[in-house]
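Re: NAP structure - here you go.
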Amino acid sequence: MKIAIIGADGQLGTDLVPALKGQDVVPLFWPEFDVTRAEAAAEVLARIRPDAVINTAAFHRVDECEDRADRAFAVNAIAVRDLARICRTLGAVLVHFSTDYVFDGEKRKPYLEDDRPGPLNVYAASKLAGEQFVRAYTERAFVIRTCGLYGKSGCLEKRRNFVETMLYLASSGRVPIRVVNDQVITPTPTMELAARVAELIRTDDYGLYHMTAEGFCSWFEFARAVFEFTGGDPSVIVPVDSAAFGAKAKRPAYSVLENGRMKTIGLTPFSFWRDALSAYLRDPSWGK
Ligand SMILES: NC(=O)c1ccc[n+]([C@@H]2O[C@H](COP(=O)([O-])OP(=O)(O)OC[C@H]3O[C@@H](n4cnc5c(N)ncnc54)[C@H](OP(=O)(O)O)[C@@H]3O)[C@@H](O)[C@H]2O)c1
C-alpha cells in the first residue's frame, strides 16, 4: 500500500512513519508541501498516486487560533475539504485527525462518536468544519478524534509537548508551574495512536473514530505523573482553575473520549494513560 503522510515530522507524523514500516511510505513536509496550496498539493499527490493520504497537518495553537480564525479555518477546514476532493479524484483513502475539543464538556461522561459536538473556541470550530468537509466530500475516509497528544518529536524546542514543557520549566527554574486542574482529558502517546492507525488503515470500516489512551485525569494530575515518573519534585506544580489561569480560548471542562467504534471493530485496545506515560518516559530513545 502506498501511503503519503502529510506533516511527517510532526509529533504524530514522526511515529506514523515507523508504524507503517513495510508499506510504501512517502513522507511530506511543511513548508515544501503546504495543505493550504490546493493546486500544488493536488499535483504532488497525483504524481505520488497514493492508495492512502494521512493528514496530520493542523493549526492547533488553541489560543492563537482565537486571533487568527482565517488561518485556523484555512488549515483545519478549507485545506481538508480540498484534500478530501483530491483523494476522491485519485481514488485514495483519506485519514484525517480531529480533536476532543469539538465537545463542550457538559456531558461529564466519556463522549461517544455520535454525541453532539459543541465547540467552544475557534480551533474546535475549525476542526469540526474539517470533519464535516471530509464527510461531505469523500466516503472512503477515516476521521480520528484524539486528545492530549505527546510524542518523541515533541521533545524538540520548536514544538515542545506538554510533558517536555513541564520538565523544561522545572529544569530552567521557572517554578512554581501553574497547571489547570479543572479540565479533564486523556493524555495519549502518538506512538500508540500511530500503531492503531496502522491497524485501522488495513480495514475498510470508514467513518468517525475516537482514539485515545484509556482513563482520564486533569492537566494538573498529568503534570504530577510526569514528575512522579521522572523522579522530579511534584511540589513545583500548583493547581489552578481555568479562570485563574486566564487562557484566551475557552476549553471544555471535560473532553474524555470513549473509544467506542474502534472497540466494536476489534482494534487492539489502548493502554491506561499512566502506563503509557511511564513507558514513554522509560523509552531509551526519549529526549534524543
Ligand atoms: N497535539 C494534541 O494534543 C492534539 C490533540 C487532539 C487532536 N490533535 C490533532 O492531531 C493531529 C496531529 O497533531 P500533532 O500534535 O502531531 O501536530 P504537529 O506536531 O504540529 O504536527 C503537524 C505537522 O503538520 C505540519 N504543518 C503545519 N501546517 C501545515 C500546512 N499548512 N501544510 C502541511 N503541513 C503543515 C507541521 O509542520 P511545522 O511543525 O513545521 O509547523 C507538523 O509537521 C492534528 O490534526 C491535531 O489537530 C492534536
